[in-house]
Amino acid sequence: MKRRRLLALVCVSACLLGGCGLLPHGGAERRTVTVWLMKDSASQEFLRRFTEEFERDHPDLDLDLRIQEWTGVGPKVQAALEADGADGPDVIEVGNTQVPQYAAGDKLLDLTLESMRDWGIRDWLPGLAEPGRWMSHQYGIPWYAANRVVIYRKDLFEQAGVTAPPRTRDEWLEITERLDSGGDQGIYLAGQDWYTLSGFVWEEGGDLATEHNGVWRGALDTPAALRGMDFYRRLQALGDGPADADEEHPPQAEVFARGRVAQIVAVPGLARAVVRRNPELEGRLGFFPVPGRSADRPGAVFTGGSDLVVPANTGEREGAVAVVAALTGAKWNTELARTMNYVPNKKALAEAVAGEEGVAAMAAGAARGRATPATPQWGAVEADNPVKEYMTRVLAGADPATEARRASRRITEALDPDPG
């Protein structure tokens, strides 16, 4: 509360020196809510309009929006959560899969009551809501989502006689095989694109890791997970993606832009980067959801995006909750989705982006979105990432079951480094 008292003194001093009139609500002091948002999550114009309306609707509150870089933000957030709160943030945007590591140790405000009573928790996209939950309590409030779709060359599809995008995985394989001819790649899929693999594993009913009685274990060696890897292997073979690199090495946007590649799996926004590199592809790119096993629903996908959290050490709980409610509510969440080509946080809001082909495809997939295992230790898995090595070994011809057991053991060790 020290920061609040100092702000109040500043306001009072300014009024005494400047002869200003009474403050709203009979002279009640204005309070400041400090909000950390990540760079490029929202446009400056969106933030300007939101701030103006929020402060108009809450005449006793001022917003202090501070933009952060994703690179290196983890330690910065941890430091803010462990500080005395006097000069720290009251609301923080975090990656949806990061919430458990911040929630551990009671460092975030429990927003379960508000989520159930006021914010429509049952309607949130599961890929955002589930990782925001820790020990059955809701700490992360879904803000926006982004997930992978298939970006394809309409002209190459037409040349191959393909009149409509595939709706099932079997159709996808059959069409991709037709496209993979005459010097064209049916699909460019890097061998270590483990986010895409995760969707295939989930579609088969498997998982990366499972929890039982508080103990997490790697699960890539289950029959369902192995079926997901087998589908990945069959699809990846219909192009020239490197088996020993991920989608950023080289950047798949560059590969797609310069070569005759029929498809890539990526977020729709990557299409803009492709067209910047090759303007001749303007108007030639289309989008469809990652196909599932049946035509009645898209395939499961990894849902990335951001949640909003409130530090437990905030000195402005009421104001922080008001900011979260406004940013994640229907009006401003829909506006953000339209402005930034995101998926809104609720299925019912998907119509707001239905007019944009890429975002509409993304929204359809987001309804079946998932996230990485909700444990604070998952970051240790990604740091070493045995999933990538597993994928490369299988694509190089190694026995899938053997390699899946090896990868699952390493995941288990990372999730429970001290099993004794």
Describe the structure using short key phrases.
420 residues; alpha/beta; D-Maltodextrin-Binding Protein, domain 2; 6-stranded mixed sheet; 3-stranded antiparallel sheet; 19 helices; 15% strand; disordered N terminus
Structure write-up:
The structure is a single chain. By secondary structure, this protein is α/β, with parallel strands linked by helices. The chain folds into two domains: 187 residues, D-Maltodextrin-Binding Protein, domain 2 (3-Layer(aba) Sandwich), CATH 3.40.190; 194 residues, 3-Layer(aba) Sandwich (D-Maltodextrin-Binding Protein, domain 2). It has 19 helices and 13 strands. The strands form four sheets. Strands 1, 2, 3, 6, 12 and 13 form a six-stranded mixed β-sheet that branches. A three-stranded antiparallel β-sheet has the order 10-7-11. It has a two-stranded antiparallel ribbon with strand order 4-5. The radius of gyration is 24 Å and the shape is globular. The two termini are 43 Å apart. The N terminus is likely disordered.
Topology:
Blueprint lengths: L1 H17 L5 H4 L3 E8 L5 H14 L3 E8 L4 H10 L8 E5 L3 H5 L8 H6 L8 H4 L3 E2 L2 E2 L2 E7 L1 E5 H6 L9 H11 L14 H10 L5 E4 L2 E4 L4 H14 L15 H7 L4 E4 L3 H8 L7 E4 L12 E9 L7 H12 L1 H11 L16 H10 L2 E2 L7 H7 L1 H10 L4 H16 L5
Parallel strand pairs: 1-2, 1-3, 12-13
Antiparallel strand pairs: 3-12, 4-5, 6-12, 7-10, 7-11, 8-9
